[in-house]
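Milestone M4 deliverable, item 7.
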Amino acid sequence: MPDAPIPVRALILFGPPGSGKGTQARLIQQRLEIPHISTGDMLRERMLADDALGLSIKRLVDAGALVSDELANQMVEERIQRPDCAAGFILDGYPRTLGQAGAICRKLTLRGIGWVVVHLKVDYNEIISRLAGRRHCTQCGAVYNLTSSPPKTPDRCDVCGFRLAVRDDDAEMVVRKRLEAYDEQTRPLVEFFSAGGCRLLEMNGAGDSPAVIARRICEIVA
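Output delivered:
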């Protein structure tokens, strides 16, 4: 009798910057009630610490470059070992390189954790337009878009009323560099996951509303 399939406990979301990974992760988190682990959020927390490591990370992020595999792997490994990840978790923005992909696949396999990979595909011109209109609240972290989800009051957060800002890495020149880095280091992950026999799903990240895309992803995980 064949072995029963390993239940999916890890959802890996990846795609170019601005493809909607963070939005999808938050929607899926609400539906499945599992932690949303964002390497971008973890890096921003380190930058706010204003120590040597935080300043080093800030220089890389502001230039549109990626942090080392060693640092990213360490942050994620420490996070998924916390008790709240026992029932499952969402990885947003990780892995970004082949080295990171190999590390997380080995880790999940050793722990007997099943996973599915969702690749969000969005046209680069659409991405640049999205990020140019993105605003975030430096007080509570809420994110808006001047076109698709604008704040009720211009330049003010709906949640806490704090002034909205443009992240340094949303500037067009930096976005283009981030997309170039994605092309070079992250797109080969499609071939890696396909060749490795992983459950890989490619979805149009702009074809439907975020809620519809999130519902489809949750159905696959379930």
